[in-house]
Each structure stands twice: as C-alpha cells, then as structure tokens.
Amino acid sequence: MSNQPLRGMRILDFGRAVAVPFATQVLGWLGAEVVLVENVSFMTNRTLPPFVDAVAGVNRSGIFNLMNSSKLSVTLDMRKAEGREVARELVAISDVVTENLPYGAMEKVGLGYDKVRRINPTIIYLSLSAFGRSGPMKGAVSFHSGVAFVSGLAAVTGYPKGQPRMAGSVLPDFVGASYGILGLLEALYHRAQTGQGQYVEVSMSEAQTTMLPEAIADYSLNRIEPKRVGNRHKAKAPHDIYPCRGDQKWVAISVGTDEEWHKFCAAIERPEWLADLRFSAKANRQKNQGALDDLISLWTRDRDPGEVTALLQRHGVAAFPVLDSGELLHDPHLIERGFVASVPHKEVGARPMGTTAWMIDNQRPYDIRPAPLLGEHNEYVLKELLSLSDRDIGDLGKAGAMGH
Amino acid sequence: MIDLGEMISAPFAARLLGDAGAEVIKVEPPGGDPSRANGPFPKGVIDKEQSALYLYLNANKLSVTIDIEDTRGIALLHELIAQADVLITNQSPQALDRLRLRHCHLKSLYPRLIVTAITPFGLTGPHRDYTGDDLIAVSAGGLAFATPGMPDVITDPGAEPPLRSETPVSDYLAGLSAAIATMAALISRRLTGQGSEVDVSQQEAVAMNMAWDIAHASYLRPKGRTHEIAGSQPNYVFPCKDSHVVIVAFLQNHWESLLRIMGNPEWAKSPVFSNGFERARNWDALESFITEWTLQHSGKEIGDLAMAHGIPCFPAYSIGQVVNSEQAKTRRYFQSYKASNGRVVQLPGYPVRMNETPWSRRHTAPKLGEHTAQILGHRLGHSFRQLRHLRAAGVISYV
C-alpha cells in the first residue's frame, strides 16, 4: 500500500464553508498538494467560532483548522486583475480545481470550467453546490439545514406528532463532500488511463437523497408518505435510546429477532419477560413497545452506559453508549485504531481531530499536517510553484493582488 | 468486483463502484440477499424480485448464487476471487475469520486483491467483536446525540433522548466511505502492484461526518444540543399555514433581508435581537415572534419570497414534494426502475455528474441467481453436469 496514493497531484481549492474544504482535506491526507486560495476580505471559516480560549483570530478557529489541515494557504485578491492572473497561472500547473462558491462566482473571475479547460485541457473540475448548477434552484444559497428539509432527510427525522427535524452535525455538507471525493478519485483514475480531464458536479441535496431510497420508493409505488417514528424501527423491538445514570447519559439498545430477545432477557435477568404475552413475539413487542421501553428505562436509569453495553454485548445483544463529540475524542477504541489524530499547529498547539472511516493495511496512511496560517505559503506558491522573481512578487504586493 | 454483501452497506459500496463502470458480481446465498425481503413492495405484497431496496442497491450487478457455508461453495467463491480486483463484504469479523476471507488469508494467493470489509466497529480494537446496526452506529458515532435539536413533542429539552433518522444513514455512510477507500486502494495499486486490506468501521463512518461538532469539542467545548450555527440564530424549523418551513438567517445580511420580507416588524428593533448571538440567547422570545409570522403564510410563499431575496429559507418538503420538485425534474435526478413484473418505481439517481464518463444503468438489478450458469459455466468452465450436480446439492441455484 502506498501511503499517499495522490502524491504528485495538485488541487487548487476555492472551497468555502464545509463541503469542499472537507473533501479537499481528505484528498490532502491522501497525499495531494492542496493550495487553498483565500482572501482577507472573504474568509468565512477563519472567522467562525469556536476559537481557542474563546479568543477570536484568523488562525484560531476550530472549524477552519480542523477542516483545512494538510493544505497550503495563498491569499489572492480576485477582484484585482493581477490576482486573477496568478490564479490562472496556478490553474495551468494544477490537476484539479474545486469550488463551492455561489452560482456564477467562478465565472465572474474568469475561472468557470470553460475558461479553465482552455488554460489546462486535462483539468478535473469539481463544482459542488446545495441544489446543483442547473434547474430553477441553481441560484439558491443554502446551508446544511435548508438541504436537510429539501432533500427529504428531515421528513424522516422526528416524532409521530411532531415536526420534521434537522439531523445532527451538518450532515448534508459531509455527504456532499464524500460524493465529491468519490467523483474526483474516479476522475483521476479515468485520467490516469486516458489522459482525459472532466467536469464533476455534485448537488448536496441529491447526494443526501441517495440515503432515502425506501421512503422515495414507498411514495412512488404506493403514494405513502413516511411516518416519523422517533427511535423506533419497523422490524425491531426494543429499539431505542434509554436514559442512564448521570446527566445526559444514554444507551442505545437494539433487539431484532426472538433469539436476540431471549439473549437480552437472559443478560438483564428478566426471565419473566419471556413469559409475558405482551412481549412474547416480535409483533407483540412492537405493539407494546411503550410499556416495554418504560420497563427497560427502569432498568437502565440507575446504570452506567458503559456497564450496560459491556453486559449486553457479552450476551451478543447490540448496545452502545450514546457518545457526544467530546466523548468521541476520548473513546479508547477510536484512539487505539488511530481515528483520533492530533497535529501541532503553530498558533494553537496540538488539538485532537477525527480522521477517516477506514484504515488501509491496518494503518491510517495519511499525511496530516496542521492547517496553514493565513497566507503562510504565499512565498512558496509564488517562488517555488510559479518561479516568479522577487521583483514580480513586489509588484503583485504593490498592486494589492496578494489579498493583504 | 465481488460483492459478498447483504442488506445495505457493502451492496451500496459495490453499487457505487459498479456505477463507475466496474463489473460487479454479487454473490448471494441460495435464499437471496435479505434486502430482497425488505421492500417497499408494490401494494406492500412481498415478492423477492420486487423489493425496491434491492432494485436500488443492486443495479449494475450480476447475481451468482453460492452457499459459502459449504466447502464446495467456498471453492467456487475462490475461483471468482482469483479473477477479481476487489472483494467487498460486510460479513462480521468472526464470520470472515471462520471463512478465512480476511485479506491476511487471501493475499498470498491473490497478491493484487483488495479486500474491503465493512464491520460495525472495524477489524481491530477493543470493540471489534461488538455487534451493531444503524441505531448503534449513529449512537456510537456521535450523530444521534447531536440530532434532537430543540424539542417539540417532548417539552423538557434535558429529558429528550438522542434521535435517529428513520433511514439507516450509517449504512449508507459506511458504503460511501468504503467506495472512496476502495478507489484510493485501486489508485495505490496502480503505483505498487499490490492489493491491500480496506477496513471500514461503521462507527467511524458516522464519526468522520461529525467534524463540525468535533471542532467545537476540540477547540472550546462540546456543542450544545441546539440548532444554532456558530452560536447564532435563527436556524430552525417553524410551523406555517400548510406545513413547516426552515428559516436560516443567522448571518446578519440574511437576517436583515428576512426582516424586510417580514415587513420590518416593531419587535425586531429591540436590542435583544440585534445580532446572531443575542438572538440565540433570547431564543424563546424570538421563536414565538417568528412563528406568529410564519403561521400567516404557506411554505411556498415564504420559500419563494426568501429565494427572491437570497435567503436560505425553504418549505419542509414531503417525500412527494421531493420526488415531484421542478428542480429534480429539470435535472432528471430520479430514475425509473422496472421490476421483473413490469412495475415501475422511482428511485434516487447517481449524484455525481461527470461530463466525460456519465453515469448509466447498464443492468437493472438481477433476479436471484440470474447469472450463476453464465458466470460459473461459461466463464469458469464448469460443465452443465457439474452445475446441475451442485444445484441438486443446494450449493448453487440458478434460473
């Protein structure tokens, strides 16, 4: 296994917010050289909290630093002709261009796909947006929350008599990011075989909808809208999240087959439940799940989620503590597997972050370097990558093209 | 690619790679992948060739039926693996050990083979033998804790449990991660000539998608279980005349545009709503003021007004509205799938649009064992006599 399969690839990144920055960060971990084009007057994530010690600063944002590791930062003012010229020169020496700016913004600075492919005919160009680059909603701006409601995800999230809800995280951004990564890897593979570049387009909303085929199909076949069911499941019972001892401590328990039900009752020493007609077969447990959940809650509420999990898993029953994002960073299993990484950043020191869902050959084969300081690599980009003279560089500075 | 998967995660990964052009041979047990019994079915009537979930996850594949619990079946599987680039599976770690299908068992025989294994907690670590499903993965990966947001049905926010969406998000996330990691391994193989083991954890597939929340925990403190973005509001769902509407105006320019379409109400001049942080701090008051306005309008009215003013506010779509939206129709996103009896079902399309290698559906999902005779007979060279003998012994089935 090569630790860095994308070594030698260069990505010119015009990503903002979450989806494209996260996608190019993963490609950076895989070895690509990612050059992030920033601008002092438009930095989005560098100005978003949380900041270390709650003190704001362009190099102190957790949202920026943990979604832009393993990248280089160059500041360019794209409103200046000289800034746009530097960007065009970077396009000529890049393999991939990525963007998720508002509709038309790349075209406005002369970096739409048609222009870019004229500069570099084998370029691969990722354009990622909330609803896609065509259709009546192509111009609509949105964050994850809007996408959650337009994609159908919110329609299947919530309680029977309640409203549709946002799923946690900023999920549609990450789902869009993953499809962006997949598309770029496929395009790079294709280019390695044929020499041909291409345009890759991802809609976050469409991407999120790929995770809802059952709801889509039931509507399409039978005109049935999904019911929101809390934590319940159409084919399992008990199947819920139960309160445990302590503040905001919860455990998830999932029992499907009757065989699992027997294991569950044996594990928690409730043989009398096996004889209880309300719970004797799966259909009965589903019908009486409210009563069952109350009984299980009585058992869990004086226990620690870790203790419940160890006991049930020892008996082959699916259970796990409900972890919050802080607990993820301290989970011994995730730490032992190397999911949690920590790289020292010049201004804020070493802070833990999550990495990828996979290991290859039992390793996290990644090149994780700290997020760049704002404009940290201006000199490298201008001198090493573009071979500009000190005089040219001075002229760019005087023209205000370097964004400072 | 050999898809030795059942239900969602591994079949979805194999489907994505089949969509990218790979030939995918799905190896099913003689009774078929359990997703064949999952539905949704036309009129809810169970029919193993009509399950919409199966049709969705297994387009662009061939189906070969082999009982891998039988030694003759394992031998056939090895013959298929010998000709394959990738084996994708979501068998449990224990089953992979028992059947000797880990990469460590296979790599000396097939040095170029990539083995992609999706398991609840990964192939290593203290929890590797834990059992799990989607509820367990969204709980272990941080998504459930972050989901409830603000309470509606249950009115005490502290007492409201974490929440799962009624679709197995973690199975799809794991499949998507497996497809990405397999592509990375394929690119590596071009450089090294060597196969590899791709170990995908369903817990980590969720946790990877928690980077926003993890940034809060890592840099300051874990994010509260509310909808505010960067400490600012509004970013929430409200009831409206006909349904619900999501109002996203935590950025000051969006907030000011929102006030304009609300007719610049008097209450908004109060300093307690002057910026996003104040609006988050005074959320209860803000929620009732905004609700008063949203209740006077339909979701579409608010959505249209907002779009004209460049604010990200949208009606909460029903699934019917998702399928029938002008946006989906213009982009031809949903695809019609025909089951074997001719019923047509709409299903999500391929969300990565590539101009030089556009997606196409080369095959609809196969019938159970549709390609057993073709692959084992023509390609692997077993005689029909041998195949009949194996079928009689229950090792394979074909149509």
Characterization of the model:
Chain A is an alpha/beta fold. Chain A folds into two domains: 264 residues, Rossmann fold (3-Layer(aba) Sandwich); 89 residues, formyl-coa transferase, domain 3, CATH 3.30.1540.10. Helix content of chain A is 39%, strand content 15%. In chain A, the strands form three sheets. In chain A, strands 3-2-1-4-5-6 form a six-stranded parallel beta sheet, with helices on both faces. Chain A has a three-stranded antiparallel beta sheet with strand order 7-8-9. In chain A, helix 1 packs across helix 7. The longest helix of chain A is centred in the middle third of the chain and has 24 residues. Chain A is elongated. The model of chain A has no long low-confidence stretch (mean pLDDT 95). With 399 residues, chain B is α/β, with parallel strands linked by helices. Chain B has two domains: 274 residues, 3-Layer(aba) Sandwich (Rossmann fold); 72 residues, formyl-coa transferase, domain 3 (2-Layer Sandwich). Helix content of chain B is 39%, strand content 14%. Chain B is built from 18 helices and 13 strands. In chain B, the strands form three sheets. In chain B, strands 6-5-4-1-2-3-13 form a seven-stranded mixed beta sheet, with helices on both faces. A three-stranded antiparallel beta sheet of chain B has the order 7-8-9, covered by helices on one side. In chain B, strand 2, helix 2 and strand 3 form a beta-alpha-beta unit. In chain B, helix 1 crosses helix 8. The two termini of chain B are 22 Å apart. The interface between A and B is large, with 158 and 141 residues. Strand 6 of chain A pairs antiparallel with strand 12 of chain B, so a sheet runs across the interface.
